[in-house]
Amino acid sequence: MYTDPRYPNQLFAKDGEIYDLAGRQTIVIGGAYSVGKPIRLERGMPWFPSEQPDDETKKRVLERLAGKEWRVDDVLTHTCPYEYIPKHLFLGNVNQASVDHTTEYWLQKIENRLSYDRWFYGHYHGNHQDGKLRCLYKEIEAFAG
């Protein structure tokens, strides 16, 4: 994990790493397409090509999962596998045909193969549960073993 002395109470997890959190093996995978990308670029605001996992990150994720024989307790991601996208949380002013779901498709391949207990994500800015996957936005859930 990364730390910053300016923010001693925050830990920054590295994409594709597996951490022991409260006795649970937890993989962390960040990234998703930002629907605000066109507006940011148009207005000269910051946008980062690395907002979605690159090939190096994807390789690290797959290697770590293979090293755990495709079994972890928990998954923490920014977005979710494609099958679980909570469409009712879509922003009404966004043309969904322009949204790149590459990351969600890739996570779907992982979810199809992975054995896990819980999966948490927050990209869609709402609270939603679908089976073992849970989108948290304004809720807090204790992360205990």
Number of strands: 6
Q: What spatial form do the alpha-carbon principal axes imply?
A: globular
Q: Average the pLDDT over all residues and give the rounded result.
A: 86
By helix and strand content, what is the structural category?
alpha/beta
Mind summarizing the main beta sheet?
Answer: 6 strands, mixed
Residue stretches low in confidence (pLDDT < 50, at least 5 long) are none
* Strand line-up across the major sheet: 1-2-3-4-6-5
**Strand proportion:** 15-25%
Q: How many H/I helical runs?
A: 3
Oligomeric state, counting identical vs distinct chains: single chain
Helix content: 10-25%
Order of helix and strand elements from N to C terminus: EEHHEHEEE
Termini gap? 20 Å
- CA radius of gyration: 16 Å
Key terms:
3 helices, six-stranded mixed sheet, globular, alpha/beta, about 20% helix, about 140 residues
Describe the structure.
There is one protein chain. With 145 residues, the chain is of the alpha/beta class. It is 21% helix and 17% strand. The chain is built from 3 helices and 6 strands, in the order ββααβαβββ. α3 links the parallel β3 and β4. It is globular and about 45 Å long.
List strands and helices in order, with pairings.
Layout: E1 18-21, E2 24-29, H1 37-42, H2 55-67, E3 74-77, H3 102-113, E4 118-121, E5 128-130, E6 133-135
Parallel strand pairs: 2-3, 3-4, 4-6
Antiparallel strand pairs: 1-2, 5-6
